[in-house]
Write a structure and sequence with these properties.
Blueprint (H helix, E strand, L loop, with lengths): L4 E6 L5 E5 L6 E5 L6 E2 L10 E4 L5 E5 L10 E3 L4 E4 L2 E7 L4 E4 L5 E2 L23 E3 L5 E8 L6 E8 L6 E3 L3 E4 L4 E8 L10 E11 L2 E14 L5 E3 L6 E3 L7 E9 L5 E9 L4 E7 L11 E3 L2 E2 L2 E2 L3 E6 L4 E10 L5 E2 L3 E11 L7 E9 L3 E2 H18 L1 H10 L45 H12 L3 H12 L19 H11 L7 H21 L5 H10 L1 H9 L9 H13 L3 H11 L3
Parallel strand pairs: 3-4, 12-19, 21-32, 30-33
Antiparallel strand pairs: 1-2, 1-9, 3-5, 5-6, 6-7, 8-9, 10-11, 10-13, 13-17, 14-16, 14-18, 15-17, 18-19, 20-22, 22-29, 23-28, 23-31, 24-29, 25-28, 26-27, 31-32
């Protein structure tokens, strides 16, 4: 079989193509300009990026500098991966065949001109060492690379065992390749979220066969460790808007807390009203339908005092606790012109730090026992009755009275929308960190950091990653012209406000920077949602333009198209980039390794 020399080109989205090396040329030009031999798209690819010289062994790669001239050469050997603007270039040289997985040293080949060997079973005693870690509900992925080095076309079949089939997804279960052909198959494993997902190490075994080589089988075990983790969810209050009944001060609502993890969870619940004008009491709902067995609760106590707004729950896997909320104003009103509106929050935190804080909020309308309008109506009726009884006397007195000019009535201006800066006594407990970067779970990729922080504040991690890319191109060391810090380009004044609240102190640490940026965005989004602007585009615009300017524009009655074009384009770039968030974070892993 003739010797083949080619470069495999893998795009950031996983598409694979090949470029055959012509021995009579000896040089391959790479760049974004269409005159190059290999044309690559991407914001980080220069028009003429570099070249591969394959006239000598080993092959050499040299990058073209921005001001002309070539940089230092580096060897480009067989199966070595060359990263250019998110693309991967792999040198495939000679007769290679079989299945390769993208872990170093894991290649299996079928030599040319030889009889296929017998099936190779797994060792009888394989060490239970996990290659992958996953929490319930988390997806882990890897790519299997298949290459046919035989002389004839061959069909390769891939099957998986060792875990439930509903956990596994293969981009394709069979592929037919010509001689020398190559394909990439994506393998995804997602342990489902729920109490039935047992924490253990699973021997995930993949097997490849080909009908063209009936006696050849390749197997390999990639042990998957499913971690033990609680997964706590808290519902919104029902009803979300509570009104105090007639002649009663307090209002009532219901809420549920569930543990969909595979281990028990200890949940500390706390109820509070934003301004401290109401007491939010939390009690177990007696005889609630669907109440699970095995749920335990107790009321926290300190210095002999019991705090009714706090509750400690012990939830087994799959346990659901139904709770009753009683919202009572601190100062009751017998008389009043109208209702007072309160916003309250129920926060849940982990006693042992095994899950991120959560919160759920609702509104409470406190009505006076007797409205002043009723008193005014009663006085008006009495006055009309008196006027009718003594009408003759009133008419004579009115004719003798001098007329007086009426003062013009001036309407009081409508209240302005104003920004209230964050502080520890105004920010909900759910927006405050329970330990900052000191509780960061080990070495994490950029994707895992964005996912962890997004779960902490209830935002889409892809939007958070797209926003970081728009701010800094995911460069943790970026610094703006106004002194902005890191990935989320946080102003020094914003950092000084929020870093103490979420308990971090290093703006150049990627996890801490994302934590502060997400807390600040979540506070802005909650603030604007309370004013009736719940669409994320307003919070994103305020993050970039400033909350005070944005609220001033809304206060004047302006709409979205009154925003400057720069801010609207900023929001559009982030929302468009959400679909490409995974590729952006993967690229950051290569460009800015931690």
């Amino acid at each position: 079989m003739p010797r083949r020399q080619q470069i495999e080109i893998i795009s950031p989205h996983g598409q694979v193509r090949f470029y055959a090396l012509d021995p009579s040329v000896g040089v391959v030009n790479i760049g974004q300009h269409p005159d190059n031999d290999i044309v690559l798209d991407g914001p980080d690819v220069r028009p003429f990026h570099g070249l591969v010289d394959y006239r000598r062994q080993p092959f050499q790669y040299a990058a073209l500098g921005e001001e002309g001239g070539f940089g230092e050469e580096r060897p480009f050997s067989q199966w070595e991966r060359l990263q250019i603007g998110g693309h991967e270039l792999v040198l495939v040289e000679g007769e290679q065949a079989g299945l390769a997985m993208n872990r170093p040293g894991q290649f299996s080949s079928l030599p040319n001109g030889q009889t296929p060997p017998d099936a190779t079973p797994l060792p009888s005693e394989s060490p239970m060492e996990a290659h992958w870690h996953a929490r319930p509900g988390q997806t882990v992925r890897n790519n299997l690379t298949i290459q046919n080095s035989g002389d004839n076309p061959a069909t390769f079949h891939i099957s998986l065992t060792g875990v439930p089939l509903e956990w596994v997804w293969l981009s394709q279960e069979a592929t037919t390749l010509p001689p020398g052909g190559q394909a990439s198959v994506q393998l995804s494993v997602t342990p489902p979220l729920g109490p039935d997902t047992v924490p253990d190490i699973y021997p995930l075994t993949w097997q490849m066969t080909s009908p063209e080589y009936p006696d050849w089988v390749h197997r390999e075990a990639l042990y998957l460790k499913v971690d033990a983790a609680p997964a706590v969810q808290i519902s919104r209050p029902e009803p979300t808007h509570t009104i105090s009944p007639a002649f009663r001060r307090a209002g009532k609502a219901g809420i549920t807390v569930a543990n969909w993890g595979n281990v028990p969870a200890q949940v500390y619940l706390s109820g509070q009203e934003r301004r401290g004008d109401c007491l939010v009491q939390i009690d177990p709902a007696p005889n609630a339908p669907g109440q699970e067995d095995g749920i335990e609760w107790e009321r926290p106590e300190a210095d002999g005092a019991i705090y009714p707004n706090n509750l400690l729950l012990q939830l087994p896997p799959g346990g659901i606790a139904h709770l009753r909320l009683t919202i009572t104003p601190v100062f009751g009103r017998r008389f009043g012109m109208g209702s007072l509106h309160h916003r309250y929050t129920v926060s849940s935190q982990s006693v042992d730090g095994s899950f991120a804080p959560l919160s759920s909020s609702g509104t409470f309308e406190s009505r006076p026992a007797i409205r002043m309008g009723f008193i005014f109506l009663l006085v008006l009726v009495l006055a009309l009755g008196a006027l009718y009884l003594w009408r003759d006397s009133f008419v004579s007195n009115i004719t003798r009275a001098r007329t007086r000019p009426l003062a013009a009535q001036v309407d009081s201006p409508a209240p302005r929308l104003a920004w209230m800066a964050p502080s520890a006594d105004r920010v909900p407990v759910a927006l405050l960190s329970t330990g900052g970067a000191t509780h960061r779970p080990g070495d994490q990729t950029y994707t895992e950091m964005f996912q962890d922080v997004a779960r902490l504040y209830g935002v889409d991690w892809r939007q958070l990653a797209s926003q970081a890319y728009r701010e800094s191109r995911l460069n943790p060391n970026a610094q703006g012209s106004a002194g902005e810090y890191g990935l989320m380009q946080i102003l020094p004044s914003t950092w000084n406000e929020w870093a103490p609240l979420v308990k971090v102190d290093n703006p150049w640490d990627p996890y801490s920077n994302i934590l502060v940026g997400a807390a600040y965005y979540s506070y802005i989004h909650s603030y604007f949602s309370d004013l009736g602007y719940s669409d994320p585009q307003w919070a994103l615009a305020a993050y970039n333009w400033g909350p005070e300017r944005t609220l001033g524009l809304l206060d004047r009655g302006s709409d979205w198209f009154s925003l400057p074009l720069t801010q609207r384009m900023y929001v559009a770039d982030i929302l468009i980039g959400v679909e490409n968030a995974q590729a952006l974070t993967d690229e950051a892993e290569v460009r800015y390794p931690q």
